[in-house]
């Protein structure tokens, strides 16, 4: 039983441990448990491979064992490319497992387990909420060069999305943000509905990371690259960095983390929506 | 790893339009590169952890005493 518990690996690790806790030394024991949960897990497998299981879904194998989600389910991906990417993440781990660097695995786990038990409708509503405080639409009044910078960098993206989707989104510099007409929201809602559950998980993740619906859609529609989208999302920060100087351990650290997460989200969406017509039956939840 | 590199190339052929494939491969490259850079930065700046007792004592020029039997509560 204990060995089975150890085997259930997932990016969140397994905090359970079948200790018989003696009331006298309870405090000492829980200190030990806590530290062992935080201690980094070493890489316990040598080889990573993928295999195709039932229903055409792909599984990941760490040595002889099948990977499972934190929720205990079998870890599956809808297509081979996604499985390869996830397997690469696991294979890239060196001596210790760094779960916070395995973004695709985390996204797959979220899609498979759905720990917050949301359906697609709720995710779309949550995603569209970001539109009202979209980074691109939220302008400053001063300093003047930042206003110019925002106009030059953000306006083209706004124009692009307004043309592409035939909507109106203003920009505003007052604290309440722009007024988004309902027709715009409806258009986007319809568009988002066309994504399947997995893609929607990824898309919502990207929107949350970039703090902007416009930038997320711009990147997913391949109008912007990941680097561009991250740059536009962090426009004010980059402006301040140019003025005041760069702090590598904070600015670069944040930027690379944001890039990694956004890239993972984008890849996740593209890989999930690739064969959507074929896999739709399997992905229904 | 070699097997994975081979498979990675195959994976990208699934994309149809050439521009799509190009964008996707750039995205994947960005993912791999920035994850690696992020981990490197983390190790460089955030990975050190606490100092041990010996190191903390050495900072002010003291040394920890050695007890032959070990301290009472150890082990």
From TrEMBL, chain A:
- Which Pfam families has this protein been placed in? ATP12
Membrane topology, as annotated: Peripheral membrane protein
Describe its assembly: Interacts with ATP5F1B; involved in the assembly of the F1 component of the mitochondrial ATP synthase (ATPase). Interacts with FMC1.
Q: Which domain of life is it from?
A: Eukaryota
Places the protein is found: Mitochondrion inner membrane
Gene Ontology terms: biological process: mitochondrial proton-transporting ATP synthase complex assembly
Q: Which GO terms describe its cellular component?
A: mitochondrial inner membrane
Q: What is this protein called?
A: ATP synthase mitochondrial F1 complex assembly factor 2
Keywords of this entry: Chaperone, Membrane, Mitochondrion, Mitochondrion inner membrane, Transit peptide
Role, per record: Plays a role in the assembly of the F1 component of the mitochondrial ATP synthase (ATPase).
Belongs to which family? Answer: Belongs to the ATP12 family.
From TrEMBL, chain B:
The record's function comment reads: Plays a role in the assembly/stability of the mitochondrial membrane ATP synthase (F(1)F(0) ATP synthase or Complex V).
Q: Where is the signal peptide?
A: none
Write out the similarity annotation. Belongs to the FMC1 family.
Superkingdom to which the source organism belongs:
Eukaryota
User: Could you tell me what this protein is called?
Assistant: Protein FMC1 homolog
GO CC annotations on file: mitochondrion
């Amino acid at each position: 039983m204990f060995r089975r518990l150890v085997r259930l690996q997932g990016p969140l690790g397994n905090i359970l441990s079948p200790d018989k806790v003696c009331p006298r030394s309870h405090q000492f024991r829980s200190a030990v448990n806590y530290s062992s949960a935080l201690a980094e897990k070493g890489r316990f497998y040598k080889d990573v491979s993928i295999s195709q299981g039932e229903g055409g879904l792909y599984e990941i194998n760490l040595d002889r064992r099948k990977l499972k989600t934190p929720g205990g389910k079998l870890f599956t991906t809808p297509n081979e490319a996604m499985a390869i990417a996830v397997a690469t993440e696991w294979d890239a781990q060196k001596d210790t497992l760094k779960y916070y660097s395995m973004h695709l695995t985390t996204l797959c786990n979220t899609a498979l387990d759905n720990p917050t038990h949301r359906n697609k409708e709720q995710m779309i509503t949550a995603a569209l909420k970001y539109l009202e405080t979209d980074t691109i639409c939220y302008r400053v009044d001063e300093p003047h060069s930042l206003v110019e910078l925002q106009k030059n960098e953000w306006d083209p993206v706004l124009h692009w999305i307004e043309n592409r989707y035939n909507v109106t989104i203003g920009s505003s510099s007052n604290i309440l943000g722009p007024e988004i007409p309902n027709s715009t929201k409806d258009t986007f809602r319809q568009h988002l509905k066309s994504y399947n559950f997995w893609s929607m998980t990824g898309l919502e993740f990207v929107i949350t990371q970039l703090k902007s619906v416009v930038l997320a859609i711009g990147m997913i529609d391949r109008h912007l690259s990941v680097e561009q989208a991250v740059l536009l999302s962090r426009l004010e920060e980059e402006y301040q960095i140019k003025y005041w100087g760069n702090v590598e351990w904070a600015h670069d650290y944040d930027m690379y983390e944001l890039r990694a997460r956004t890239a993972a989200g984008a890849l996740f969406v593209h890989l999930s929506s690739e064969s959507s017509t074929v896999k739709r039956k399997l992905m229904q939840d | 790893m070699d097997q994975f590199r081979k498979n990675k190339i195959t994976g990208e052929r699934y994309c149809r339009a050439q521009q799509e494939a190009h964008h996707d491969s750039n995205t994947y490259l960005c993912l791999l590169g920035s994850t690696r850079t992020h981990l490197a930065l983390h190790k460089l700046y955030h990975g050190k952890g606490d100092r041990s007792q010996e190191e903390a004592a050495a900072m002010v020029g003291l040394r920890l005493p050695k007890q032959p039997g070990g301290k009472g509560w150890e082990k």
